[in-house]
Design a protein that fits this description.
120 residues, alpha+beta, Nucleotidyltransferase, domain 5, four-stranded mixed β-sheet, 4 strands
């Protein structure tokens, strides 16, 4: 008798400090969900958590160009996640975003209300 391996679909909601993973089967039934730290150890735990549910059919990662870059790259390296973005382009974009944020912080915050007051 041939065993059919269950198939899983995972979604990852990414944040600066933590990532939340939800896993469903191909019929849409919830298999599990859990939170993990947004660190290398957390990425390893996420990969193991997702793989424990069977054949991973697909993984959706929120924010592949921001908070989700690290987990996306880790899952690509582990062979779990295929992204339309190459690892190099994700890393370059991440570095560009960090440089933009640092430049923006050094210039100070600009909000519309303070601009209106300056014009008056």
């Amino acid at each position: 008798m041939t065993m059919i391996q269950p198939e899983a679909i995972a979604g990852i909601d990414t944040h600066a400090e933590t990532h939340h993973v939800a896993v469903i089967d191909t019929a849409g039934r919830r298999l599990g969900d859990a939170g993990f730290p947004a660190t290398l150890i957390g990425y390893q735990a996420i990969a193991a958590y997702i793989a424990a549910f069977g054949l991973v059919r697909q993984v959706g990662v929120e924010g592949t160009y921001s908070y989700g870059t690290g987990i996306t790259l880790h899952l690509q390296d582990a062979g779990i996640c295929r992204s339309p973005y190459s690892p190099v382009s994700l890393q370059l974009y991440r570095l560009q975003q960090q440089a933009r944020r640092q430049a923006h912080r050094s210039q100070g915050s600009v909000d519309p209300a303070s601009l209106r007051q300056e014009r008056s």
